Amino acid sequence: MEFSTKKIDDVELNTHIVGGVRHRRQVTPRKVLQDLQTFEIRTDDVVVITYPKSGTTWMQEIVSVLRHNCDFQKADQDFMRERFMFLDHQIGNEIAPYIKAKTQPSPRLLKTHLQKHQLPPQIFAKKAKVYMYFTCMKRNTSHQTPTSSPPHHFISLHTVYSFFFQVIFVSRNPKDTAVSYFNFHLGVVDLPKYTWQDFLHSFCIGDVVYGSWFEMNAYWWSQRKQKHVLFVKYEEMHQDLSSVILKVSKFLGWPVPDGKLADIVLHCSFDSMKSNRKVNFSEHPLMNIESYPFMRKGIVGDWIHYFTKTQTEKFDELYEHKMQNTGLQFEYISKTIRV
Ligand code: PPS
Fold first, then answer.
1. Most buried among 38, 206, 249, 264, by the most CB within 10 A?
2. Which is nearest to 165 in space by CA: 278, 239, 253?
3. Residue 159 lies in a domain
4. This model's pTM is above 0.85
5. In angstroms, what is the span from residue 314 Cα to ligand 1's centroid?
6. What is the count of structural domains for the chain?
7. d(CA 244, CA 42)
8. Other Cβ atoms within 10 Å of 224 Cβ, number
9. Which of 49, 240, 289, 295 to mutate to test the pocket of ligand 1 (most atoms within 8 A of CB)?
10. Where in the sequence is the domain holding 214, given as residue range(s)?
């Protein structure tokens, strides 16, 4: 699938390939990826896993609010990057989030964009534990004299599933993801700068930072029925945020307080998050938010303004080829907002 054959020089300067995946050279050094191979997952960790630009921050804000029982002030007390430990990130000389996470109280909130084979292996080793135990119960014999008959015992089998952590995977249609990711590159200091054509080409062959959208999404889609995995689509959040909030709440076991659902929807709306400095990354040291806002458009269907007719045809062909056996389908046009 060729969109472009142009060689982009600063890609090689600013990024490196580790484990077959392209990463930001400064932000995701080899050591971080190596150390994550022995990172300890805790029983009550909540891990938000996404391909970049899929609605990660949106989901993080929902989880933060639920975590604090809908106390918006508490939820937004810290900047997003201090609430969720971004495992595969390290900025300058700051202590890496995965190191900070080691001493954080539970339940920890973690975020990662890593492909399956670069995630901490414990994520796969510690899926769920099943305890089975027997109890013996003596029948209630109060109406009998102790000596009138021997006590009767019942044996009962109990099965307890104890889940070791929870994964929320957010997926966004790949055309809008590519557009959002392309724009993000323009605004982030150390990310390589591409033309749209070159970016789309690299995205399609999985040679951008964090690798292949197709691989990551196909894998987590295949895991969606596991009890510790919640698979949510960005487009679903757009269409019915209330339902998604209730789904996340049920999954995590963190209830929505009575009468608060509408408030969460409002708090997590695009406009509210765009003007919320705790989540809009306006103070992030590596982002040029003035010219390239993190909360850019927040819509379904912006790809229409970027993809040419030929690019659309080629991309649809590629999607069919790579994903035809998965059954994963998306809405590509908003049902509610004109783009
Ligand atoms: S990152 O850097 O990978 O963590 O980015 P991520 O948060 O995954 O994705 C950023 C895109 O999500 C949009 N966004 C939202 N859309 C709708 N409503 C809300 N509340 C919302 N919050 C974030 C954000 O605008 C980015 O998409 P684009 O298309 O670039 O606007």
1. 264
2. 253
3. no
4. yes
5. 25
6. 1
7. 25
8. 13
9. 295
10. 9-125+165-323
Other Cβ atoms within 10 Å of 331 Cβ, number: 15
Helix (H) / strand (E) element for 23: namely strand 21-24
CA 117 → CA 24, 32, 56, 111, 165, distances in Å?
17, 14, 20, 16, 18
Q: What confidence score (pLDDT) does residue 335 get?
A: 72
What residue spans of the chain are helical by DSSP H? 9-14, 30-36, 56-67, 72-75, 80-83, 97-101, 122-125, 174-187, 196-204, 213-222, 234-239, 241-252, 261-267, 270-274, 309-323
CATH number at residue 250: 3.40.50.300
In a domain, 131, yes or no: no
- By the 8 A CB rule, do 162 and 131 touch? yes
336 in any annotated domain: no
Give the tokens for residue 70: 């809908």
Section 32-58 average pLDDT: 97
* Per-residue pLDDT tens digits for 100-118: 999 999 999 999 999 999 9
Supply the pLDDT for residue 11.
Answer: 84
Which residue among the candidates 23, 89, 113, 238 is catalytic per the annotation? 113
CA–CA separation, 197 and 88 (whole Å): 28
The Cα–Cα gap between 14 and 25 comes to: 6
Spacing, Cα 295 to ligand 1 middle (Å):
6
Question: Is 267 a member of any domain?
Answer: yes
Which residue is closest in CA terms to ligand 1's atom 20?
A: 270
113 is catalytic: yes
CA of 282 to the centre of ligand 1 (A): 13
Phi and psi dihedrals of 74, rounded to 5?
-65, -45
Which pLDDT value is given to residue 1?
A: 57
Q: Where are the alpha helices (DSSP H) in 109-173?
A: 122-125
